[in-house]
Amino acid sequence: MSEKDFNGRFKSYQRAQQAAERILWTANMWTANGPLPSCTKEDFSDLLDAVGRAILNPGMDNLLYYLACAASGAEREQMLAKLLQSRVRYEQLSEQDLLPYHEKEAAVPPGTRKQAALDELRRLCPDTIEDEEPSEFETLQLGSVPTAEVDWLIPGLIARGEMALIGADGGTGKGIYYSQLIAAVTTGKGNDFFPEAPKEPGSVLILSGEDDPSKVLRPRLLAAGADLSKVNVITADSYFRQRGTLLTIDSQALQAKISQLKPDLVINDPIQAFLPAGLQMNNRSEMRGVVTPFKSFCAAVNAAGATVCHTNKKSNVAGRQRLSDSSDLWDLSRCVIMLGYSKTDEAVYASVEKDSYARKPMTTLFTIEGTTVEGVRTAVAVYKGRTDRNDADFVFQRTAKPATTRDSAKDAILSVLEDSKLGSLPSTQLQTAVLNETGCSVATYQKAYKELVNSKQIVKKPIQRKTTKGAAQWFTFLADCYVDPLREGDTKIIS
Q1: Contact of 310 with 319, CB cutoff 8 Å
Q2: What is the pLDDT along the chain (495 residues), one digit of tens a residue?
Q3: Same structural domain for residues 312 and 257?
Q4: What is the CATH number of the domain that holds 344?
Q5: What is the pTM (predicted TM-score) of this model?
Q6: Cis amide leading into 270 (omega within 30)
Q7: Closest Cα to residue 72, out of 80, 64, 63?
Q8: Nearest to 349 by CA among 336, 363, 361
Q9: Position 144 in a domain
Q10: How far is CA 391 from each of CA 158, 166, 213, 428, rounded to the nearest angstrom?
C-alpha cells in the first residue's frame, strides 16, 4: 500500500505505517478473541490520528474496531469513544446518526475481524515483513522414546491427554449421560454406565454453554451421585459478562485456567458455544486450528478432554456422517460416543463408535427418569442394559435380537451340541449355529466357548479322517459324548 493508493486520504501515512509496525509485532500472540497483549492506547490513538479520512476504507474500519473491541474494561470504552469521534469528524455526521452503526460494530466479536485486521496491518507496512529465520523447536528421536501404556481416566474407554467426543441430537440426554461419567470420575467409583472405575477420584472442569449451574448442573450431578466439591464450572455468558469477549477453546484465558485447576477431565458442552465467532465447522483446517490447542491444553496437565457436539440435521445417516459438518472432531478424538433414542427399546442408547486404544464395549441403554434433589425437580439416567447394536442399527431401525449374555451363549452351545446326532459338530458349524440362534457377538461366543472348555463341559479336538487329505478339522464334543476316535479305527487325532 502507498499513500497514493488512498488518494491522499491519510492524514499522515508515515505515522500510520509506524504505528502499524509497532502493533504488528504482537500479532503472533493474537487469539480468536483478540490480541493478547493488546496494542497500547497510545499506539491505537497514534494510528487513529494518522489515518484521517482513510478511516472510511472498510479494511481500516475492520482493523480499528478489532483493536478497540479486543481491549478490556475502561481501555476498551476509551478506544471506542475515540473511534466514534473520529468517524463523526470524517463522515460529517452527527454522533446521534452514527451511534446505531457504531454500537452494532462494537458488538461484533473481535474474532470475526481477526484475519481482516491482520491483512490490513500487513498492507500498511509490507516492507517491514521479512522472512524470519525458522525458530528452534524440539523433535523426538524415536529410538530414545520409551514405550508407554495408555494412561486411562476411565479404563478401556477414555484416555488421559486425549480427546473424547459425545455426539447427540439436542434433547437426547447427553448432559444426563455424562453426569454419570462425572460421578465416576469425582468419586473414583464405577457405576452401571462406566463399570471400570478410575484409579482414584479426580476433578472436573465444565465449560457450559447452555446449562445453568444452580438450576440444572447442580441438581443433575447430585442426582447422578457426583462429588460436587471436585467440579468447577465456567459458563459462556458469565465469562462474557466478566471479560466482554467470548470464551473460546483455543484462548489463552482457558489455557491459564486449565493450568491453574489441573482437572482430570475437561468437558465443553456444546463445542458450538466455545468456537470463535465466524468459524465454519465444515472447514477442517479452521476446526483443527481451534481443537488442537484445546487438546494441547488438556494434555499439558494430563487431563482428558471431552467435547460434546450437536449432530447435524441430515436424515438416514449414522456414525461419522451424523457429524459430517465437523468431521475433524471425529478424527482428533480417540473415543467417540453417539447417543440417540431407540423407539423399539423405548430408551436412549450410548454407542461407542470409535475406541482407538481398546476394544469397543457394548452399547448402553438407559431411560431418563424424573427425580427431586434439594427440593428441585431434575432428571437422572436409569440403566436398562446393554446391546450389541450400534448407532447405525438404531438409525436404520435394523432388527436385531436382544443382546445375549455369556451364560445364555453357553446354554446355546450346549443345547446345539445336544441336538446333534453324535453330540459333536465341526467348531465353525457350531459357532454359526449359535450366532444365528442367539444373535450374540463373536466376542461373547468366544468367551462363553472358552469357559465351557476350561470347565471341561465340552472338548475341542482336531480330527483328520484317513480318506481326507489336507489339514485337520476342529470338532467340538460334549464331554459326556466324547470317545477317543483311535478306538473307532477310521479316524486319527492330531495332537
Answers
A1: no
A2: 444 444 456 777 777 777 887 777 666 566 655 555 557 777 888 888 888 878 878 788 888 888 888 877 788 888 899 989 888 888 788 888 889 888 888 888 877 777 788 888 888 876 544 444 555 667 888 888 899 899 999 999 999 999 999 998 888 899 999 999 999 999 999 999 999 989 999 999 999 999 999 999 999 999 999 999 999 999 999 999 888 888 999 988 899 999 999 999 999 999 999 998 777 787 777 788 889 999 999 999 999 999 999 888 777 778 888 876 666 788 889 999 999 999 888 999 999 999 999 989 999 999 999 999 999 999 999 999 999 899 988 888 765 455 567 888 898 899 888 877 778 889 888 988 888 777 788 888 999 999 999 999 999 988 765 444 555 788 899 988 776 654 444 444 433
A3: yes
A4: 3.40.50.300
A5: 0.58
A6: yes
A7: 80
A8: 363
A9: no
A10: 19, 13, 31, 29
Parent domain of 433: 406-493
136 CA to centre of own chain: 31
Bridge partners of residue 235, in order along the sequence: 208
Contact 266, 205 (CB under 8 A): yes
Same domain, 64 and 201: no
> What gap in Å lies between CA 53 and CA 90, rounded to an integer?
6
Cell of 34: 483478540
Pair 75, 45: CB distance under 8 Å: no
**Domain count along the chain:** 3
Residue 106 and residue 193 in one domain = no
Same domain membership, residue 354 and residue 296: yes
Please report where in the chains the cell 502507498 appears, as a residue: 2
